[in-house]
């Protein structure tokens, strides 16, 4: 019987999945940055994952998950998002702190005898606290139709569906602006093509730079002034 994947390898698979979804592949330097390790230490782990048929690695093209690797990565991702829900919904941890804490907790709830009762207790949540979808029982992700906030045209409104960046400082900043899942936001205007955009949420207007606007995804409403 094949040995179980280590918690370190699980972190790699989850991070590769996130990077692959964002850019198409996980470049070694970006993988090292996300995992907070030196680039030289990546090689052995990637080679080990490749030997187990979990990833493919092409020089200068980056790392990609195989179907087997994707299935494992989504299992880890589901545990991570359930852990985030446990931390925010039951333990009332702030949403900005949930991601880092869940990185540790996700490995503890790997056993199905824990994972399934936890999911039931949480009411089978469809998303994590940041609005990102929960992988299904069959290991698939169903995304709600949405687009980056910056694609809204002036006077168009949208409801925030998800925030794809989970760094604590970013989430704290968004919370102070009330830019959270479920909030209605209106595009007021923009400067240059990649310059700040002006949005209105509740009764306040805010200038957002391109990077922040790109991680907020909205479902466009039919209302346009």
What would the keywords be for this entry?
single chain; 225 residues; alpha+beta; six-stranded antiparallel β-sheet; two-stranded antiparallel sheet; 8 helices
Question: Could you explain the architecture of this structure?
Answer:
The chain starts with 6 loop residues before the first helix and ends with a strand. The relative contact order is 0.10. Among the domains are: 7-65, Winged helix-like DNA-binding domain superfamily/Winged helix DNA-binding domain (Arc Repressor Mutant, subunit A), CATH 1.10.10.10; 147-224, SH3 type barrels (Roll), CATH 2.30.30.90. It is globular and about 55 Å long. It has helices at 7-23, 28-35, 42-51, 67-90, 95-105, 112-121, 168-176, 210-215; strands at 55-58, 62-65, 147-148, 156-163, 184-190, 197-201, 204-208, 216-224. Helix 5 packs antiparallel against helix 7. It is of the alpha+beta class and 225 residues long. The strands form two sheets. A six-stranded antiparallel beta sheet has the order 3-8-4-5-6-7. A two-stranded antiparallel ribbon has the order 1-2. A hairpin with a 6-residue loop joins strand 5 and strand 6.
